[in-house]
């Protein structure tokens, strides 16, 4: 089954670009990759979703290499309010419909 | 502004008691997810439904947990009997999916914080 791996934490400063990578070696052919953001005492919130190459929306970009075994969430010019935990989500692969959240990356943005 | 609602927001109970958590998905969504979040295990998918039919419940302890969707506007998660190790935040999420495998965008509720003494 698929397993996702993310760095436990990252530090950044306001105004910098932050890249968070998730590895998902066993992703299934038809599975999408989705990233969520979670603040304390709240449910996760959708950021971006992609299948291959690059996806960009108003808050982030998602880069997916050709082999799709990893993905990188890119946050341009972070601010203090971007301090949160970021999760990647993929399907578990195989014959299961199970979904697997990554372990989460705590991003701490400092002034 | 459509939102997923969950009740209760907080629940404190004693070991052995039955606990029922309720979720109202966003109107029009056909997929409902139940997650459990703890410091040790992170976010774990317990079960999810599409068009009220269970798609996966492999993450749910079958002996004490049960999840149902009596109708399209209500999902329930029951624990009977509850145990201290069930203490966690339980999230419900809803979304709209077309195929069996797509990870459609999920909209999460505020969660139910359960404490079992």
Structure description:
Chain A is mainly β and 111 residues long. In chain A, a hairpin with a 5-residue loop joins strand 7 and strand 8. In chain A, the strands form two sheets. In chain A, strands 2, 4, 5, 9, 10 and 11 form a six-stranded mixed β-sheet that branches. Chain A is 0% helix and 51% strand. In chain B, a hairpin with a 3-residue loop joins strand 4 (31-38) and strand 5. Chain B is globular and about 40 Å long. Chain B is built from no helices and eleven strands. Chains A and B meet through strand 4, strand 5, strand 9 and strand 10 of A and strand 5 and strand 10 of B.
The dominant shape of chain B is globular
Total strands of chain B: the figure is: 11
Distance between the termini of chain B: 36 Å
Average predicted confidence as pLDDT of chain B: 91
Q: Please describe the biggest sheet of chain B, giving its number of strands, its sense, and whether it closes into a barrel.
A: 7 strands, mixed
H and E order of chain B: EEEEEEEEEEE
Give the ordered list of helices and strands of chain A.
EEEEEEEEEEE
Task: Give the largest interface.
Answer: A-B, 26 and 26 residues
User: From the alpha-carbon coordinates, what is the Rg of chain A to the nearest angstrom?
Assistant: 14 Å
Structural class by SSE content of chain A:
mainly beta
Mean pLDDT of chain A: 89
Ends apart, CA distance between termini of chain A = 40 Å
- CA radius of gyration of chain B is 13 Å
**Helix- and strand-based class of chain B?**
mainly beta
Outline:
Chain A is mainly β and 111 residues long. Chain A is built from no helices and eleven strands.
List keywords for this structure.
heterodimer, A: 111 residues, mainly beta, 6-stranded mixed sheet, 5-stranded antiparallel sheet, globular, B: 117 residues, 7-stranded mixed sheet, 4-stranded antiparallel sheet, 0% helix
């Amino acid at each position: 089954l698929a397993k996702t791996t993310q760095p436990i934490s990252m530090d950044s400063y306001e105004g910098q670009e932050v890249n968070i990578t998730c590895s998902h070696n066993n992703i299934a052919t038809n599975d999408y990759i989705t990233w969520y953001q979670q603040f304390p005492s709240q449910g996760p919130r959708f950021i971006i979703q992609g299948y291959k190459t690059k996806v960009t929306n108003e808050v982030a970009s998602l880069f997916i290499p050709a082999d799709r075994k990893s993905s990188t969430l890119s946050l341009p010019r972070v601010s203090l309010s971007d301090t949160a935990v970021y999760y990647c989500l993929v399907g578990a692969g195989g014959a299961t419909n199970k979904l697997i959240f990554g372990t989460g990356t705590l991003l701490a943005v400092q002034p | 502004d459509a939102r997923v609602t969950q009740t209760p927001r907080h629940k404190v109970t004693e070991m052995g008691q039955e606990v029922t958590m309720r979720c109202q998905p966003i109107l029009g969504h056909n997929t409902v997810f139940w997650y459990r979040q703890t410091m040790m295990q992170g976010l774990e998918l317990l079960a999810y439904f599409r068009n009220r039919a269970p798609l996966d419940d492999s993450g749910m302890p079958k002996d004490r947990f049960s999840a149902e969707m009596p109708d399209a506007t209500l999902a329930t998660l029951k624990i009977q009997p509850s145990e201290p190790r069930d203490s966690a935040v339980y999230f419900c999420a809803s979304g709209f999916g077309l195929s069996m495998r797509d990870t459609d965008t999920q909209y999460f509720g505020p969660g139910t914080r359960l404490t079992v003494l």
